[in-house]
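re: that chain from earlier
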Amino acid sequence: MTESASLDRALARLAAALDGLETVVGLRIAHDGARPEVEAELSIMQEDRARLAQDLDAALTRNNRLDAALSESGERIDRAMGSIRAVLDAQPANG
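^ sequence. v structure.
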């Protein structure tokens, strides 16, 4: 093998290595440049999550209050129906 051919192969390998390095550096720059955007998006998502958690807690509290009011209303209706039946049963039959 001649020195010229060996030198050509070495230069070709060097050129390929430099191309690969340029690609990796480009990807790294793009990745590092996107990092603030990703961090800002993550921050927004965390704020949304916190707000949604508060909304869920408020909705669950409201739901519990509505369940209690519904239960109390049902008991009152049952008592009213019992009172009405007692009044109706106490009426003499017209016949």
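The first helix runs from residue 3 to 90.
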